Amino acid sequence: MKPKLQITMYKLQMRIGRMSSTARNKKRFKLKKLKKKTKIRIYSIIALALALVISYCIVTFADMPTLSDKSIVTLLGVDLAGDEIEITAQVIVPSSGAETQFNKEVVSARGSNLLAALNSISVTEGRKVEFGQCGLIVFGSEIVERGVLNEIKTLFSANTVSSGVLVVTTNDTASEFIAMAANLDEDTSENLARLLNRLNTTTEMPMLCMLSFLNGEMGESGSSFMPIVNLRQQDQSVQGEEAEAESEAEGGGGQNGGKDNPVGESDIASLNTAIVTKNGVKVGELTQTETQGLNFTLNESKKGRYNIDEFTHSDKQFESLYGHIRRKSVRTRTSFVDGKPKIVYNIDVRIQLDEDVSLLGLNRQDRRAIDAVIRQNFENKIKSEVESAILKSKELDADFLNIKHRFFRTINRQMIQYDNGAGDFLSELEYEIKVKVNLN
Question: pTM, whole model, 2 decimals?
Fold first, then answer.
């Protein structure tokens, strides 16, 4: 190539390079400008959205009722009053004054049905009534005889209260229960629902929530149970003696140490039995032994206090021994034997014995022998209680132990065939109870 042509080609390449560089710079500039505009638009949209949210919150919260505008229901009682439903509620009501304080009040209302009665309470109080914090629903003795399934369905479907609220019944009217609950000492009154809920995790008393009750009634078993909780009015003379003794112990002046006696306080009378319901109607009542047997079939109860009665070993009399259940597990095995349903309960329990004078001073060999007898006594007692609950279920023809549900859950196909054959499940049910107790 000639030198002149080479110079021309070189100049041409330099010119093209300068042109492409200029184009790239222009493109880069346009891209930066576009990014800047996009950022501005995004920030504008975010600012607008925030402004809308803040405006909505201001309008919403300005119209929201404050605590001073509400009455909070903590306990709810349901009774039958002729052809009407009467509800009684313990409510927390704010008091007027410079500083907002909250007082307990008992209010009641009636209606043609439960929903009408609940609406009447809002009118009676003149302020918005909050049922979401209600921890306990009590049904009177008369209404459980008639049936409570419709009322519980109403509470559940209307989403009036939490589905986890505890449901119990009482031997009195629910209105009397709520009135006495208001006179419980402060700690018990404020934590009554919490106390009963704690008992659900112990072997002392079976508890159940509204949803569990509905599951039992509406499920395969078609039956459930409801704990009985009774309150009582303390004798005023006993209260006066206790207050006087307390005053003297504190060195207070005068008969009452300058304090008024707590007049008319209530306390918990009993909570160790339950009723059995079928289609929401009470069909029977469990004894304390049968209730304890029911509780031992539930996996929810894992701890609690337990005892065996006095017994004799090697011509030596031992008093009643107490212990704490530290662990409990319940496993079941379902099957059909010769065409009949059979359930096997395997219950493992670990018990820590309380220190007892009668067990002190024993040598190792005697203590081992005594421990074996103690284990056997605990096992026999648990087995007897569970068996009593099963026999009660057969007697009432009410599957409050939820055994039928266990069969449907574990051997569904066989159970459907048996159910279609119109077999009498509870009367034909065979059972075996295996209990193993370990002592700490």
Answer: 0.74
